[in-house]
Design goal:
single chain; mainly alpha; 434 Repressor (Amino-terminal Domain); 2 domains; 10 helices; 2 strands; about 5% strand; elongated
């Protein structure tokens, strides 16, 4: 997507909303965001997520291209792509972003399976790996995969209006006491979960291989259980920092 001028975007958004006779709260309800989020857009403090550009444009009665450029495109000043092209560009970016996430997860999965295969080739049985290497690596991969493919990065508007400490989407429920989830920290948390859990899934058996090579079979099991706990604690600490910083 082309670079957006935040201030120009905000002024245009304010103008369009005023023409429609909508308050910030009314516009926010249509998009499942809070009036505070709309206020930030209009002040140029932030921009909508890519997924919101098309529904925002449709709500305000303009094309996605007009919304992105911050001005109505008519007659002689129509230099950009038409509305259909603008919508296609946004849809294509959303598809491309999801494709990248899927490829990222697939790469982490293949590397992890290859590392488990190396451990098996080094003489560690599947039964010995099942309680630690396989279990923890697959748990990390499951979290990463869900946040790559299944998680929705847009929360309902009431998350921006109230301090809600849990998010439940499908089978996954995340509860952090004292932390308020909203549409500012949740997309960042999704990205953190994707990257950290995939990295942990790859890192865990890799360290196991190194431990076996350097310390032998007798030390690896105790060490790997301790490492799993350390990685889980780092994950929790990272989530708390990201959530609180962007709350």
């Amino acid at each position: 997507m082309e670079q957006i001028n935040n201030e120009k975007f905000g002024r245009f958004l304010l103008e369009l909303r005023s023409e429609k006779g909508m308050t910030q709260r009314e516009l926010g309800k249509k998009l499942y965001v809070s009036d505070k989020t709309v206020s930030k857009w209009e002040r140029g403090a932030s921009l909508p997520q890519t997924a919101l550009i098309i529904p925002l444009a449709e709500t305000l009665g303009v094309t996605a291209q007009e919304l992105l450029t911050g001005e109505k495109i008519t007659g002689s000043n129509q230099t950009g792509p038409d509305s259909e092209t603008g919508n296609n560009v946004i849809h294509e970016e959303l598809r491309a972003a999801k494709k990248k996430r899927i490829l990222f997860f697939a790469a982490a999965l293949l590397i992890t399976l290859a590392e488990i295969g190396i451990l098996y080739g080094m003489g560690i049985s599947i039964e010995d790996m099942r309680q630690n290497v396989i279990l923890f690596s697959l748990l990390f991969l499951l979290f990463s995969g869900w946040f790559c493919i299944g998680a929705k990065e847009l929360l309902p508007a009431f998350y921006d209006q109230e301090k809600i400490s849990f998010v439940q989407q499908g089978p996954v429920r995340i509860n952090l006491a004292g932390i308020g989830f909203n549409n500012n920290n949740w997309p960042r948390l999704c990205r953190f979960f994707r990257i950290w859990c995939a990295a942990a899934a790859v890192f865990y058996p890799l360290v196991c291989i190194f431990t076996v090579l350097t310390a032998g079979f007798s030390a690896w099991e105790t060490f790997m259980n301790s490492l799993a706990l350390i990685l889980a604690l780092i994950l929790l600490a990272g989530v708390l920092v990201v959530a609180k910083k962007n709350e």
